[in-house]
Every structure is written in C-alpha cells, then in structure tokens.
Amino acid sequence: MNYPHRLCVQLAPVTIRWGQQAEIEERLHEAGFDIFRQPHITLQTYKPDDNLVEQLSASLERIASRYSKMTLRILGVGTFKDKGVVCLSIEKTRALQALQSEIINMTTPGPWISTIRGWKWTPHISIARIGSNSRQWRKWEYQPHQSGEIEAKWLELTDWDKLDKRYELAI
Asked: What pTM was computed for the model?
C-alpha cells in the first residue's frame, strides 16, 4: 500500500510490555496481516511544507523539554476496519492529552494541517495492517485477558519511515 506523503509528530520509540504481545502477533501473522515493527503513537499529521518543518522543529524541542517519558496502560486490542488496521488501545491520560493538545496548537492554522482541530483523537499503536485478502477480518478475533503498558521516550518529527528529527522527553 502506498501512503500519502506527510509529516507526523509522534511519541516513539514505544516499548511494549505485555505478556500477550507474542500471541497476538502470531495470530495476526496466521491471519495474513502485515506486522508493524516500529511502534509509535501519532499525535498529529501534516502535509509537508519547508516552513512548517522549521516551525515544528523549534517548537518540539521546547515542548519535549517540559514532558517526562510516559508510561501508559494498554486497554486492549482494537481495529480501525475502514483503514484495515489492528491496534493497541492506549489509556488517554491527562499528560498524554495535554501533550497532544499542545502539539495541535503549536502551529498556526494553514494548508499543511491534515487533521482538523476538534477531531476525536483515539490514542493507539497500530500493530498490523490487513494484507491483500479482504476476508482476513473474518479470521481475526481476539479478546485480551491481560493488561500491559507501553513506555515512550521521544517526540519524533518524521516523514513516514524516514526519521527527520528526534527530541528526548525530559527525565
């Protein structure tokens, strides 16, 4: 699948501590899903613009210095069927909401913002994408029975797979 060219501000790298991770990945693989190997939490996406990259870089360094690394609870496994994605649902803590709100509000409105202010943000980590077989959703059923947690240490400004800038959260 080809992804549209866009910039992302995300929390990463994400360390997942969950006893069920190997079991979930095995079941997804058996069902024909493509497993993601670089877990992250997307906070905002933008259409690329050279001036925006400079604006974001200056703001992200300042913002990262005010937040500590985050440990967040995994609430369960979910799906975005319209996007063909299986994800881990993450607890929306006050600190995570404040960080995401600050990321959204750090830029002036412009044509580069690809999400609309006021949209309903669902914190999650995408762990797999459906392959070419459209019947895979019927094969995928999973009810978690154990909670887990994730830890995020960096704010990243990325162009999908290419890491552009990384800002360590204060400790």
From this structure: 0.78
